[in-house]
Design a protein that fits this description.
The chain is mainly beta and 299 residues long. Helix content is 2%, strand content 53%. A four-stranded antiparallel beta sheet has the order 1-24-23-22, with no helix packed on it. Strand 4 and strand 5 (48-53) form a beta hairpin. The longest helix is centred in the C-terminal third of the chain and has 6 residues, at 269-274. The radius of gyration is 17 Å and the shape is globular. The chain starts with a strand and ends in a 14-residue tail after the last strand. 46% of the residues are buried.
Length: 299
């Protein structure tokens, strides 16, 4: 599609930029730098970046219905008060696995948070396998474990009717779907909806558009692919000028802009010279589709 335009908009030079979330109420883009241990807020209106440092690697940040945010820092879920730059411990997971950390997290349509863990990496995507789990956290901070023996718990989102949960365990090289009960959070009937093809790298962060189609960032492949989960067909591939594309979300006033985060960690000097924008965040326009508002954590 000749109308598609890719523009580098947030020059944050993140080690591992991840977890973009469009904060509709503030018209700002939230995202994290996992290895840089920072949460960022960027305003497209002013082009200003505000940042908060975290005490450990930060896997995700999501807006909270009661105000502020919650973030996955190390193995802990913390409340973040942006106005006074404070973080308060809410709970801890994987207490018997001190080498684990939280990675991706997202809020379902009724305000339940799903978040996954993984073993800490020796090098990017190199880690002790099957150490992670997928948890849910309800408004009263009740934690339930849904999956175990996960390698890298990653991209997640829901179908338009809320009856299907899409999920990525990156090293499996698949995008999976589960039947989802939004009342109980129960997952069942796991199946593969897309298997990565040669040259598409590792499936990483993911979002669903307003037509129910998936947009998956392809780590080590410099692209975002658009998948129809009903047919398993790749509909489109959008190339970016960096190889380590990590995640994506729709944002902007009408949710027609696709924001894509990236990483620089793991690139050698030669690769960094050829990918000067590695670690920055990009905006893709002209896709002809829109996204949906981010759900708020009810806890």
């Amino acid at each position: 599609m000749s109308s598609v335009k890719v523009e580098c908009v947030v020059k944050a030079a993140a080690l591992v930029g991840e977890g973009p979330v469009w904060e509709e109420s503030e018209q700002m883009l939230l995202f994290v730098d996992i290895a840089g241990q920072k949460i960022h807020r960027w305003s497209p209106t002013t082009n200003q970046i505000q940042s908060v440092e975290t005490s450990d690697m930060v896997g995700f940040v999501v807006p909270r219905r009661s105000g502020g945010y919650v973030a996955g820092v190390g193995r802990s879920l913390v409340a973040v008060d942006w106005s006074n730059q404070t973080q308060t411990l809410l709970l801890e997971v994987d207490k018997n696995k001190p080498n684990n950390r939280l990675n991706d997290g997202k809020v379902d349509p009724i305000g339940r948070l799903l978040a996954g863990t993984m073993g800490k990496e020796v090098r990017p995507a190199e880690l002790e396998r099957q150490q992670g789990s997928l948890f849910s956290v309800t408004s009263d901070l009740t934690v339930s474990k849904h999956l175990s023996q996960v390698d890298i718990s990653n991209g997640m989102d829901w179908s338009l009717d809320q009856k299907t949960f899409f999920y990525i365990d990156s090293l499996s090289l698949t995008v999976d779907a589960f039947d989802y009960d939004s009342n109980t959070g129960h997952l069942g009937n796991r199946r593969v909806v897309y298997r990565m093809e040669e040259g598409e790298g590792l499936p990483d962060g993911m979002t669903v558009d307003a037509e129910g189609r998936l947009w998956v960032a392809c780590y080590n492949a410099g692209r975002v692919i658009n998948i129809d989960p009903a047919t398993g067909v790749r509909l489109q591939s959008v190339s970016l000028p960096v190889m380590k594309t990590t995640s994506c979300c729709f944002g902007g006033p009408d949710f027609s802009d696709l924001y894509v985060t990236s990483a620089s960690l793991g690139l050698d000097q030669s690769e960094l010279r050829h990918q000067a924008e590695a670690g920055h965040t990009f905006k893709v326009t002209g896709l002809g589709v829109k996204g949906r508002p981010q759900c708020l954590f009810s806890g």
